[in-house]
Task: inverse folding
């Protein structure tokens, strides 16, 4: 039960989870159940302001330049954007964790090589390179996921390595080695469980960066192409009509803001809680 | 001496980074297999593509081409813009002052205000003022630069007609781009300074200073802030990258004639020599900025200086 005493001091986290759950719910329920088509509209019903009723039905968030329902597009766009962000985050986490653990566990030249790659990655302003690669390879969802994933693993590798170094010298790892367990088994069974928690916190704090990056690529028109909506390209398309239909820009931006505030608050709360546990 | 060795190793690392970036922008063109077809317009004839391939030397072994690219790079030659038929570096230098003006103005106002807000928030921790500052900082980091920029244009240019919505001219043109670009940075600075200063103010030497009867602001400024700046300085390099990325989007929204807009237009026109020039240049700026951060860090942190 959430009693008052347990809530106190954790209001941030509750608010954050509510925001995230709300955004995720919209992104799943709207594409599944909302009856209006996100890709096809009625040309007689363009630029209808929010809460307008047309022949197609009620448009709670209005319609766009082609008479498409904005709620339907926003729901699908959020789903596509979150899908791209989560898939690329998954690539970053897996790649970073493996490389970080290998670097920390084996040390030596493997460690030096991997950590130099990490340094290079953390030292490059990536948005331009991402735009360049997307322009060359083409703006498909798979390409975006691969490019965002391959350019974001460095922070995870750094933390995974640090944690591995700390765990490596503990008695139970010595013991596992003494009874003849292989390096692979030791890494999977004894090192990995110890680094899951810090990596989860890091992931929460890294998601906002990815969400805004994906939205920026979409806004510039270099990401997923119309008619498919994403949080970024909705704003990019709505930009031309901002004076007559500001809702086209307003709501996608609020959606991005909500999920980023949620992730940042939750991440900060997780960090504070981890600090308290240690001290 | 430890500090000097640290800085030397960092300088070397910067060179490695630049080599890595040069390889990335060079080999990127070969990802689709045929850089000549990539760079020509889709309706170019086969004969035209062949001629272009010979002219660019794309028939040579790839390592030879990379060495030639590096050699030219060291002489500051990045090839001709395919669209303007002028050296890519010339275009870069022409657009650079606009970006420098935008980035520096954003950096100055946002770090000054971020510092003040962070200190006030830390000293008056858990007060109403602290809460308001934290909420503003949280929102500033949450909204994308381009969205904030569009809302400002809608309000101040289109509705109120106070400020011009695009282009470069008098100071009025700089106001909105600078605010949009600095919004993220001011939030980040506020949060960082607050967290770092609260941590420092809880240390024993601060208690000692208080026990000696020093005034509150003197303690904060003389003893607290100097130490609180170490973690703040350390992440400036990372935030600088965010600033460069933000400048790119800001320039597009406000039609600001800087290198970010040059790069995005070049990408849309498949003008790859120009893209390579901008990527390499921003990477170089970034490496140098990080090096300056390292110097400041060494100077502020006596543990390394020894």
Result:
């Amino acid at each position: 039960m959430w009693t008052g005493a347990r809530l106190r001091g954790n209001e941030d986290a509750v608010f954050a989870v509510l925001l995230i759950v709300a955004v995720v719910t919209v992104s799943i329920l709207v594409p599944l159940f909302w009856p209006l088509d996100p890709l096809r509209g009625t040309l007689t019903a363009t630029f209808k302001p929010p809460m307008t009723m047309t022949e197609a039905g009620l448009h709670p968030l209005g319609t766009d330049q082609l008479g498409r329902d904005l709620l339907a597009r926003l729901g699908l766009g959020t789903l596509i954007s979150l899908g791209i962000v989560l898939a690329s985050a998954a690539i970053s986490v897996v790649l970073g964790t493996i490389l970080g653990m290998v670097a920390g566990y084996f040390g030596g030249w493997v460690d030096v090589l991997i950590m130099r790659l990490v340094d290079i990655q953390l030292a490059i302003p990536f948005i331009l390179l991402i735009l360049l690669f997307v322009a060359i390879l083409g703006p498909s969802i798979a390409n975006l996921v691969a490019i965002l994933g391959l350019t974001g693993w460095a922070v995870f590798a750094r933390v995974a390595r640090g944690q591995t170094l700390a765990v490596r010298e503990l008695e139970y790892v010595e013991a596992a080695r003494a009874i003849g367990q292989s390096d692979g088994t030791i890494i999977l069974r004894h090192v990995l469980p110890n680094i899951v928690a810090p990596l989860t916190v890091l992931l929460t704090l890294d998601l906002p960066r990815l969400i805004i990056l994906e939205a920026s690529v979409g806004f510039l028109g270099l990401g997923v192409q119309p008619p498919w909506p994403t949080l970024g390209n909705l704003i990019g398309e709505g930009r031309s009509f901002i004076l007559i239909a500001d809702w086209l820009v307003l709501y996608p931006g609020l959606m991005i803001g909500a999920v980023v505030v949620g992730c940042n608050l939750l991440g900060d709360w997780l960090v504070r809680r981890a600090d308290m546990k240690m001290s | 001496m430890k500090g000097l060795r640290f800085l030397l190793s960092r300088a070397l690392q910067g060179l490695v980074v630049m080599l890595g970036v040069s390889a990335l922008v060079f080999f990127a063109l070969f990802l689709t297999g045929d850089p000549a077809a990539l760079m020509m317009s889709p309706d170019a004839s086969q004969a035209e593509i062949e001629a272009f391939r010979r002219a660019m030397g794309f028939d040579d072994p790839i390592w030879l081409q990379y060495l030639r690219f590096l050699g030219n790079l060291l002489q500051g030659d990045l090839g001709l813009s395919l669209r303007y038929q002028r050296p890519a570096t010339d275009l870069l230098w022409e657009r650079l002052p606009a970006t420098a003006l935008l980035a520096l103005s954003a950096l100055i106002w946002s770090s000054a205000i971020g510092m003040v807000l962070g200190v006030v928030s830390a000293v008056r921790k858990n007060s109403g003022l602290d809460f308001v500052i934290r909420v503003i900082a949280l929102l500033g980091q949450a909204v994308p630069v381009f969205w904030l920029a569009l809302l400002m244009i809608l309000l101040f240019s289109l509705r109120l007609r106070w400020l011009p919505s695009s282009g470069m001219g008098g100071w009025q043109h700089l106001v909105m781009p600078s605010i949009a670009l600095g919004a993220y940075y001011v939030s980040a600075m506020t949060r960082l300074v607050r967290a770092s200063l609260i941590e420092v103010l809880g240390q024993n030497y601060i208690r000692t200073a208080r026990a000696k009867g020093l005034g509150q602001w003197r303690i904060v400024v003389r003893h607290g802030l100097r130490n609180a700046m170490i973690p703040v300085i350390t992440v400036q390099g990372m935030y600088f990258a965010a600033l460069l990325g933000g400048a790119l989007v800001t320039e597009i929204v406000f039609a600001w004639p800087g290198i970010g807009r040059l790069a995005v237009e070049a990408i849309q026109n498949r003008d790859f020599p120009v893209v390579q020039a901008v990527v390499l240049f921003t990477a170089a700026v970034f490496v140098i900025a990080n090096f300056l951060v390292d110097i400041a860090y060494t100077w502020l942190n006596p543990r390394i200086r020894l």
Q: What stands out?
A: The interface with chain B takes residues 116, 119-120, 122-129, 131-133, 135-137, 208, 212-213, 215-216, 219-222, 232, 235, 239, 242-243, 246, 249-250, 252-253, 256-257, 260-261, 264-265 of chain A (CB under 8 Å). The domain at 17-34+60-278 of chain A is CATH 1.10.3720.10 (MetI-like fold). Chain A is about 70% helix and 0% strand. Residues 81 and 230 of chain A are 5 Å apart (CA to CA).
